[in-house]
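User: Good morning. I'm curious how nicotinamide-adenine-dinucleotide would be positioned relative to this chain. Could you predict the structure with it bound?
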Amino acid sequence: MYKVVVCDTISDAGIEILKKEKDIELQIKSDVNKKELPKQLTDADAIITRSSTTIDKEFLSFCENLKVIGRAGVGVDNIDLDEASKRGIVVLNMPTGNTLAATEHTMTHMLNCLRFMPNANYELKYKHKWDRKKWMGIELYGKTVGIIGMGRIGSRVAIRVMSFGANVVVYDPYIPKEKATKIGAKIVDNLDELLKVSDIITIHTPKTEETYNMIDKEEIEKMKDGVILINCARGGLYNEKALYEGLKSGKIRALGIDVFENEPQLNHPLFEFDNVFATPHLGANTYESQIRVGEGIARSVVDALKGRGYENAVNIKMEEEEITELGKQFLGLAERMGSFLSQYIKSFIKRVTIYAHGEIESCTNSLGLFSSVGILKNMIDEHVNYVNAPYLAKERGLEIETKIYDKATEFKNYLLLEAEYDDNKKIEIGGTVFEPNKARIVYMDGFDMEIELTGNIIVFRNYDKPGIIGKVGEILGKHNINIADFRLGRKQALGEALSFIKVDQEVNDAILKEILSIDGAISIAKVKI
Ligand SMILES: NC(=O)c1ccc[n+]([C@@H]2O[C@H](COP(=O)([O-])OP(=O)(O)OC[C@H]3O[C@@H](n4cnc5c(N)ncnc54)[C@H](O)[C@@H]3O)[C@@H](O)[C@H]2O)c1
Ligand SMILES: O=C(O)CC[C@@H](O)C(=O)O
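Assistant: Good morning! Here's the predicted structure, ligand included:
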């Protein structure tokens, strides 16, 4: 059983997914005081949070059993990623689920800053004032909107403001220029250029050392008089003191702000201004977005706990690979093949070359990672997982390389692992997946044969002569070991033969020795997957 604790409110749709899993014990602790919370997580296998839970080193020191942190949203600035990685905890987020909600929230703030809608609404309904002069607005049409950070949200805001007839200037040094130019936006090389020409500035970067206080007093001074500022990304990207001064002096016409350096924020000095539109971190708060995020993170956490895949893992090096359902199956296969190899070889493996063929050719980095986990789990007596495997492999001098398989094969998708061990010894195994969750080995060292990579497998090599296999069966029977599956491969009649014998229980070394003593036996090994 895995214990999964939900620490912040997620959608019912996400909760239902977790409830349906038979081997998951679900606990909801979104109402527990945040100081008390870590003490209640000592035996949790996974936790799911949003931005309200700060997961720092001290928090993690209580979570002795933790394997997975699921962040129901984009920003992981509330999680100490280095500490989580050191502890081998996988951190997953759900970056795309709330993109549209945050984009539309940004537009809402922008339009409010242009038209003062909340003030007019308040005065009419609660003060009974019909004042049409006071709430004179300005149009978005024809204005220049400066967008800092042209990622998922920034790029969508750009398209929306352009549809209002505004011009867009982008500052984002980390994107290809065409991302901005192809939609008709202008991209600038330095922030100052954007600050000088923009009537409205909206920021959509993550909170990093580089972006923290990126807009300070000096930057505000460079802006146009009457500039409108929006922050629906992270508190602290705009220096809050500088914002206050800019509003007080009238330099800033209006501010739309959803996020604060310290949250929750009930009594901020910025609240004294009528031209500040503040919301309590509502960017992601739409029903649609919360369903997407809740469902997505629940599925990813279950997958990660069960080793089925690590979608959106932020501290696992999978680079830009898009892993399809089939890809996930092959990652599982790569891990099993790695495990098979290291148990079979039982010696120091110095290099593994993975050859991939078919749809999975694009997953080369992830295939390397998963096979290294399989190899290391048997090589070292330590807690190995997808987070610490690259560090452990490096430390132990295990080199993993991935290449495209360029020989002919009858399989649509195929993996071949070639391991070098001891002094220039080599071994090759091939594998594929024919149907979901059925990883198979289909080739080993020149023998074409297949068996599902699960359970206890005896790998037996012998000279192909009559009577040997019968004797193996006799020995196993004598020790009450039931044979569940038996596969034999030969290169040629009366040459060498290789058998995979699947048995219902693990066999001990004495039984293996007895089989090896049969006349004609060459080698024997046991593998447990
Ligand atoms: N208010 C909310 O509820 C809410 C909801 C969703 C996302 N967010 C926040 O919005 C922000 C953007 O989210 P996203 O999904 O678009 O992220 P993203 O990763 O898709 O985009 C971020 C962009 O910022 C750029 N960037 C990074 N450093 C930069 C720098 N120094 N200068 C200029 N650009 C820089 C990156 O190159 C990238 O293109 C994040 O901070 C996220 O946490 C807030
Ligand atoms: O819903 C939340 O907790 C915050 C959402 C947002 O800030 C995010 O980073 O995804």
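Residues 50-51, 73-75, 98, 281, 283-284 surround (2R)-2-hydroxypentanedioic acid (ligand 2) (CB under 6 Å). Residues 319-454 form a domain with the 60s Ribosomal Protein L30; Chain: A; fold (CATH 3.30.1330.90).
Let me know if you'd like a different ligand tried.
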